């Protein structure tokens, strides 16, 4: 038996004021994305904003369905939207935030494993790490560079590409 360890690196900022201007603006774009959330079943709105190379920002929000598993997370809505519109776009960074009237969100909401797997694929496609910002409205921001720092044991199998 051999004990092995991963080291996961990320930064924590007390609030938007501690971030650089571009990151702070992207977090506010994620807040803007909350407006289009369709979440009548959970009441939990999630907003995502992608910063593309060249300056464009793409928004996405969670879209729920009465058949619950048919809904989609904000992160994947944003990623698949740009993936289908401009497959050559390069995502430099993405910001994610959440809001609900049902309770107080006290810390940044980090994304689900399914979204992380999709983020990893986009990163691998573009051969450039994606910076991820998790923003708790009026509070802490977590900044992570590279999806491997979020999902070290992601599913990878290069031989599946024919
Ligand atoms: N949700 C996201 O949009 N992103 C995540 O990473 C996790 C969860 C959404 C799905 C659903 O509409 C609501 O949050 C509650 O799970």
TrEMBL record:
Name this polypeptide is given: Cytidine deaminase
Keyword Transmembrane applies: no
PANTHER family, sorted: CYTIDINE DEAMINASE
EC number(s) stated in the UniProt entry for this protein: 3.5.4.5
Cited InterPro entries: CMP_dCMP_dom, Cyt/Deoxycyt_deaminase, Cytidine_deaminase-like
UniProt GO MF annotations: cytidine deaminase activity
Keywords: Hydrolase
Family: Belongs to the cytidine and deoxycytidylate deaminase family.
Source organism (scientific name): Pedobacter gandavensis
Pfam families from the UniProt entry: dCMP_cyt_deam_1 (PF00383)
SUPFAM superfamilies noted in UniProt: Cytidine deaminase-like
Domain of life according to the entry: Bacteria
Membrane spanning residue stretches: none
Domain CMP/dCMP-type deaminase: 21-158
């Amino acid at each position: 038996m051999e004990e092995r360890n991963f080291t996961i690196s990320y930064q924590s900022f007390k609030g938007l004021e501690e971030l650089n201007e571009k990151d702070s603006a992207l977090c506010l774009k994620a807040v803007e994305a909350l407006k289009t959330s369709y979440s009548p079943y959970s009441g939990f709105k999630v907003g995502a904003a992608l910063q593309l190379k060249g300056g464009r920002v793409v928004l996405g929000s969670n879209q729920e369905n009465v058949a619950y598993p048919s809904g989609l997370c904000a992160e994947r809505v944003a990623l698949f939207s740009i993936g289908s519109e401009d497959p050559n776009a390069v995502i430099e960074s993405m910001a994610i935030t959440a809001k609900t009237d049902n309770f107080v969100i006290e810390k940044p909401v980090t994304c689900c494993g399914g979204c992380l797997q999709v983020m990893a694929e986009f990163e691998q496609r573009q051969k450039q790490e994606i910076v991820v910002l998790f923003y708790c409205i009026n509070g802490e921001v977590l900044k992570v560079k590279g999806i491997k720092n979020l999902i070290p044991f992601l599913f990878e199998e290069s031989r599946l590409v024919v």
